[in-house]
Amino acid sequence: MLQPRLLLRRPPKSCNWIISTLSFRQTRTNSSLEPAQPDAVQNSVLQNTALAFAPPPTRDEGSTFAMRTYKPRTPGVRHLRRPINDHLWKGRPFLPLTFAKKGQGKGGRNHTGRVTVRHRGGGHKRRIRTVDFSRMTPGKHTVDRIEYDPGRSGHIALITEEATGRKSYILAAESMRAGDTVQSYRAGIPQDLLDSMGGVVDPGILAAKTAWRGNCLPLHMIPIGTLVHNVGSSKDRGGVFCRSAGTYATVISKGDEGISKGNEGPTAKEAKFVTVRLQSGEIRKVSKDACATVGVVSNPHHQHRQLGKAGRKRWLGIRPTVRGVAMNAVDHPHGGGRGKSKGNVHPVSPWGVPTKSGYKTRNKRNPNKWVVVERTRNQGKRKRAQKG
Domain residues of the chain, as ranges? Predict the structure, then answer.
């Protein structure tokens, strides 16, 4: 039986283990986040009424983390590296919320049976987990367990509604564990929370009591600077952005549209959009009523894993990728010839489409695109015809 070993950050000199610590900008949400004191919150609101904020999840810049490695008893585990996720559920999923992945689409084929996506097929049997990306049900939900999902890179959490006992799957935020309580505020502010604020919505107190890890809120209720995931695009849709492992978006501004001139306080007209920054650097404006979950998606070290052998790729349903220069001339434009030869041609796909950057692929009246190459009778040389 393979014996797992933990990679230590600073092992003793006499240790002969394989040490592989990776530097990564680790996402860490503050697990002991406590609501701010009402007096301090009210003072901050008085100083800046337009900006109400709660302590958002933070990120450490120079942190290191450990990966699990194994003794090289076989060649397949010599380079195997895995993130340490000992908190995951080790049993079967909640079967009423799953269905078998069968039929079309497993081998990268369309309804006619032709391969439309290459390098897919085979793999282990899977069951699709039905994940609730909308989270429209209000009330408190208790996290039963954190599970592995073969259909995504992040982990999922099985939650139970306290009022009805109904179970559902949601995306698990980083540092979320069994026993935590999460809530959705998409249906509005609960009456008990409104009564605790004296019947009047105080932005600072509201943010301090609702902007917690795992809670789903409309974007206009989330403080500026908070890291969020599972961000929606419109009011009636579920989350569509930042759903893979370790991803997040940042709320950078609110109320920059629709504010009447001369009014800068809370009495100004509410904005229709909230501006968020995605991890790609893209700045997007989404509806203020769109959903977002506070925190970062779980399993942030997914990108640093090493599968160790080709067979583990096949278990995941990924087929081999063969280089064009290794094929025969009948199979690829780069194939054939003696030795490693490209045949003195520019890089192209198996269907002859150029793959170098700068190639224009527009088809609608693009004056810069050159098409069919014809040979003229008079000049005896190639002439390019422009598509008008």
Answer: 4-304, 331-388
